[in-house]
Write a structure and sequence with these properties.
heterotetramer, B: mainly alpha, two-stranded antiparallel ribbon, 15 helices, 2 strands, D: Cytochrome-c3 Hydrogenase, chain B, three-stranded antiparallel β-sheet, 12% strand, globular
Chain lengths: 151, 357, 159, 375
């Protein structure tokens, strides 16, 4: 499926969600509450088949957090970026770990570095940091006088 | 003057001058000191040999700093191990933990008894020599199991259990391949076995069965001494150091020494059974050729053959990857054991029919 | 598993093992030709390091004890680790004007990752990378180096 | 005499023990910590605990300029340091719209492939060592050392080259580079058959790897495996083929695919990639065009506002660099999608129900580099 067709399909099916064609990949904004069903839609629709989640991360925009999912279909070779805005105080989103297994580790990483709570995650524990760590290190307002050296 | 005449002279002198019981005790002491000395020398030489063989196979130089060509490297290492603190970790079973290395080293000392180092040089020409070796060598597994269990460490326990399964299985095929020679010779006595090879070694005289038995014996010997590719008990990449993970200092050195002495012992037995022990290379009744061969001292023959086999076992170690535990057992039970069973049947027929030379 | 397979298994297995032993045995016999060990402290005299090897930052001085550093701090800005610290002073030119010049070039070898970005950034090629690597010292403070030699001054004509 | 501490603890009600493999263990290739549950010799569960060398490179990069941050990525996957730098340079060039001169593109690709050979050589030695054979490690290091020397000659460093700058490469090729690289290829051609004789054909080694660490094609995709790990399961995912960068479009090479999905398939993929990399270098080495090795760029790089994602094929799989730019001199956010991290997540799935020895062999064939996982 070409980028144009993909854009058309997504705008038809999800007229409320903003589809952005300006960047390197086709982008779609999805409300966090819809993400769980949207993920399944992307993976299981026969003409989409986004079966490969190659990058999962989060960006702190100080006012809100944005989850960024880079998806690819290994059969059709089309790619899509899904973005979900999260509340910065109470970041909660459905997990993608049951849809794409690789999300399990990536979400654990995002959880401990950004503090995003993934609902339904099979094993949401800290992966990298010690258990007693306080704060979410990759957020922009994180300060650590001991471990961070300012140049 | 050969070793044999020297030994006889000492023996006669002791019995002439001393009370027989005292003379016997003095002889015990002399033999004990000699064996411990042999242990030390063997440890040093074999460790050095292992290092040089491995380094030459691995494009390296090997130890070359201490002494000429690095020959004193092992001495330095031994010194380091002696002065190192022999730690006993908390919560280990102290008695078993400290006894295990002793047991292992005592076992490898006891197996030395029936080995003929040269013509007439033997500690004890027991009439069940081969059986004695087979019986005593299986005792060393008890030391390994003790060490593994007493260490209170999961890696050690796994290593010990692996070693137990391994040695118990490989005893069988080792025993059966020894039996091939016993059947051919008709005696369990070491001196008889060596004398039976005066007109040719069993490896050449015994047709195919002897060759098969020899190959199986080498494989089983490698396995029994826990050497790669059968070093599952240690398995550095899996179990860090296996059953001796918790040992340090001299206690570790004893395990280490026992491993190398065990290699020497099994290779000496292999050399005695299949390559004629101290017997020079004789071909049938070629008098002239045999006579020339006799000029080389018997001890040279014995040690030459033994070290050749040791080299082969080291060669294995530095070439092959390690087997997995289930593959190790299936190799024994599906391949080596049936073949050696069949082999013993074959050799019995040959011996009964008198088809061997 | 048929009997034929059983024996062919044994045969191929033994053959593959023998091939492996041929390789290591070959190296054992040819070890004096194949060995690749470099006996480092002994071969110091014959050791040739690549001319581009990046071991530490040095400032080149010519015979008149002059360097080319104007104290512009381009290298200090380019350094990702804060390795370089430049202290400047004001010299008086013969015409009586004040001119910014280098006072001390402090280089923290212990922080340096030899990324070469400072050398790339230098507009006057005052600093280069030297192919030295024996930097071990007993005290970390000895790794903080002053790169401009005492009494050195900027070369004529370098702006 | 019974003491509570005498008994090696098992999970109550079962015969299962919990063992810590690592963080200091001979076969974890660094400070990886696996908590494994075993029943006798059978592995029931593997739980990776990461972070022992986590330096938060992503956070560090947020305070470094677009020129500076490239060098930090050498410290991620230190075995393919050059390819990591390449990914970052591509991202910055994409953001800035810099046209890389053809000569620089050739140099980059040749260096990438040399790095890949060096990395695969080390992997070959270490996988053999994980299986218990020590000698292959030294043979592999002989070849790797030759590549390091070539790298040192041209790039000025052996391991963390930092040869990439946005817009090209830092120096021109050393005059001896072509001669040395060709000498290395000739040497390696004569030695790579030895690899097969010593390890690939060895019956013990084959039995150790065949049938272990199986992962199906669907699972490999779902777990996000890339690189030789995924290609061993038949997933066509070579970035060099599908999203060609630099001059990969012009060279002839095959994407190696095996369908068995076990450790041996992954082993064969990597070994075949060695030969492919050699052929790529041979195609390019004589045709490096003359010209600039570096495009003219501004001293301070300020990419426009936006998001940029670039990817390259490292020795371990797809490395993605995701840059969020706010138009400043430093990136607003950088995410490194490292191949090792996703490949490691499949480890538990691969080794469940297999023997303890298999765990080590599977880890070897996954080619884990811990700084790549921890970042």
């Amino acid at each position: 499926m070409t980028r144009e067709e993909l854009k058309q399909l997504l705008t038809e099916r999800f007229p409320d969600n903003a589809v952005d064609d300006a960047g390197q990949f086709l982008q779609i904004q999805v409300p966090a509450s819809q993400w769980g069903s949207f993920a399944l839609f992307l993976r299981d629709t026969a003409e989409l088949q986004f079966d490969f989640l190659f990058c999962l991360t989060c960006v702190d925009w100080l006012k809100h957090l944005t989850m960024v999912y880079h998806l690819r279909s290994t059969d059709y070779r089309h790619e899509l970026v899904v973005k979900c805005q999260l509340d910065r105080e109470q970041p909660v989103i459905a997990t993608a770990a049951h849809t794409w297994r690789t999300a399990e580790f990536h979400e654990r990483e995002v959880y401990e570095l950004f503090g995003v709570q993934f609902e339904g995650h099979p094993d949401l524990r800290r992966l990298i940091l010690p258990d007693e760590w306080e704060g979410w290190p990759l957020r922009k307002d994180y300060e650590d006088p001991v471990n961070m050296i300012k140049l | 003057m050969s070793f044999e005449t020297l030994a006889n002279w000492v023996h006669n002198w002791l019995y002439e001058t001393l009370h027989p019981t005292v003379a016997l005790l003095v002889e015990f002491a002399i033999v004990g000191v000699l064996i411990i000395g042999l242990f030390a020398v063997l440890g040093l030489v074999l460790v050095m040999m292992e290092r040089k063989v491995s380094s030459w196979m691995q494009l390296r130089l090997g130890p070359n700093r201490i002494g000429p060509w690095g020959w004193f490297q092992t001495v330095a290492d031994t010194l380091k191990l002696i002065v190192k603190e022999g730690m006993t970790p908390n919560n280990v079973d102290k008695l078993l933990f400290n006894m295990a290395p002793m047991l292992v080293i005592v076992v490898s000392m006891v197996i030395m008894a029936p080995i003929m180092f040269a013509k007439g040089i033997q500690i004890w020409d027991i009439n069940i020599g081969v059986l004695f070796v087979a019986a005593v060598s299986s005792l060393s597994i008890i030391g390994v199991l003790m060490a593994g269990w007493a260490s209170n460490n999961k890696y050690s326990l796994l290593g010990a259990m692996r070693s137990g399964a391994q040695i118990v299985s490989y005893e069988l095929s080792a025993g059966l391949s020894i039996l091939v020679i016993v059947v051919l010779t008709g005696s369990l006595k070491m001196s008889d076995i060596v004398m039976a090879q005066a007109d040719g070694w069993w490896l050449f005289k015994g047709h195919v069965p002897a060759i098969i038995a020899f190959v199986i014996f080498i494989i089983a010997a490698t396995a029994e001494t826990n050497r790669a590719p059968f070093d599952l008990a240690e398995a550095e990449s899996e179990l860090t150091a296996g059953f001796h993970t918790e040992y340090s200092g001299m206690k570790f050195a004893l395990f280490f020494l026992a491993e190398y002495v065990n290699i020497f012992v099994v290779c000496a037995i292999g050399a005695t059974l299949f390559l004629g022990g101290w017997m020079p290379f004789h071909i049938g009744n070629w008098e002239g050729f045999n006579h020339v061969m006799d000029y080389i001292p018997s001890s040279v023959w014995f040690f030459g053959k033994t070290f050749l086999l040791i080299f082969v076992i080291m060669w294995f170690r530095w070439t092959f990857p390690r087997l997995r535990i289930d593959q190790l057992l299936s190799l024994e039970w599906k391949y080596l054991l049936p073949i050696s069973m069949f082999n013993i049947l074959l050799v019995t027929i040959i011996a009964l029919a008198g088809w061997h030379f | 598993m048929t009997l034929k397979q059983y024996f062919s298994n044994i045969f191929t297995g033994v053959k593959s093992l023998a091939t492996g032993m041929k390789v290591t045995g070959g190296y054992f016999l040819r070890h004096h030709k194949e060995k690749i060990t470099e006996q480092y402290p002994d071969n110091r005299d014959t050791l040739v390091l690549a001319e581009r090897f990046r071991g530490e930052v040095i400032m080149t001085h010519d015979d008149n004890n002059e360097h080319a550093c104007t104290g512009c701090t381009a290298c200090e800005l380019a350094c990702p680790n804060g390795t370089i610290k430049i202290i400047t002073k004001f010299d008086l030119t013969p015409e009586g004007k004040k001119k910014k010049a280098l006072d001390t070039f402090i280089y923290h070898l212990e922080l340096c990752t030899m990324c070469n970005l400072c050398v790339e950034a230098c507009p006057t090629s005052a600093i280069t990378m030297a192919p030295t690597f024996e930097h071990s010292v007993f005290d970390r403070s000895q790794l903080i180096k002053k790169l401009n030699k005492p009494g050195s001054k900027i070369r004529e004509g370098v702006e | 005499m019974y003491r509570e501490t005498d008994i090696i603890q098992t999970i109550p009600g079962t015969d299962e023990m919990v063992i810590n493999v690592g963080p200091q263990h001979p076969s974890t290739h660094g400070v990886l910590h696996l908590v494994i549950t075993i029943d006798g010799e059978t592995v029931k569960k593997v739980e990776p605990h990461l972070g022992y060398i986590h330096r938060s490179i992503e956070k560090m990069c947020e305070s470094l300029s677009y020129r500076q941050f490239i060098y930090t990525t050498s410290r991620m996957d230190y075995l393919s340091a050059h390819i990591n730098n390449h990914a970052c340079a591509l991202a910055v060039e994409q953001a800035m719209g810099i046209e890389v001169p053809l000569r620089a593109q050739y140099i980059r690709v040749v260096m990438d492939e040399l790095t890949r050979i060096a990395s695969h050589c080390l992997w070959w030695g270490s996988v053999a060592m994980d299986c218990g054979a020590v000698t292959p490690f030294f043979l592999a290091f002989r070849e790797r050392e030759m590549i390091n020397t070539i790298m040192e000659e041209t790039c000025g460093a052996r391991l963390t080259m930092n040869y990439m700058v946005p817009g090209g490469v830092m120096f021109d090729l050393h005059p001896n580079f072509q001669r040395d690289a060709k000498a290395f290829l000739a040497h390696f051609r004569s030695k790579i058959d030895e690899y097969d004789e010593l390890v690939t054909g060895n019956i013990i080694f084959q039995n150790r790897l065949k049938g272990t660490g199986f992962i199906s094609k669907a699972d490999a995709i779902s777990y996000g495996c890339t690189g030789p790990t995924a290609r061993g399961s038949g997933v066509s995912c070579d970035v060099r083929k599908w999203y060609p960068y630099e001059v990969y479009q012009q060279v002839q090479f095959d994407e190696i695919l095996e369908t068995a999905g076990d450790s041996y398939a992954r082993y064969l993929v990597r070994l075949a990639e060695l030969r492919q990399s050699m052929s790529i270098i041979e195609q390019l080495i004589d045709n490096i065009p003359t010209g600039d090795f570096q495009a003219k760029t501004k001293a301070v790089l300020k990419p426009p506002k936006g998001e940029f994602y670039s990817r390259v094929e490292t020795a371990r799989g797809e490395l993605g660099v995701y840059i969020v730019s706010e138009g400043g001199t430093t990136p607003y956010r950088i995410k490194f999608r490292s191949p090792g991290f996703s490949n490691l997540s499949a480890l538990d799935h691969m080794v469940r129900g297999q023997k303890l020895g298999d765990l080590v062999a599977v880890m070897g064939t996954l080619d884990l580099v811990i700084p790549d996982i921890d970042r």
